[in-house]
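Input.
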Amino acid sequence: MMRRSKYDLAFHREDDGVWYVDFPDWPFTHHNLAMVGGADKLCSYLADGKRTIRVEVIACKHPISLSGYSILTKT
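Output.
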């Protein structure tokens, strides 16, 4: 898989209430795309009642300041 500096990710909440990442070319079973505890809570928070959310992730080695964006740090 080629690494990029920008990712546009989509997440969907299905009828069972579980959030899944949208990964069209995923070669394995669907349940492997389910969000784990914590990630599903973040999806619900960001969705604000909607069933689908899109998240843009900008990967960089140095913090950048963009209006309307927050910094998440990988630990």
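The mean pLDDT is 84.
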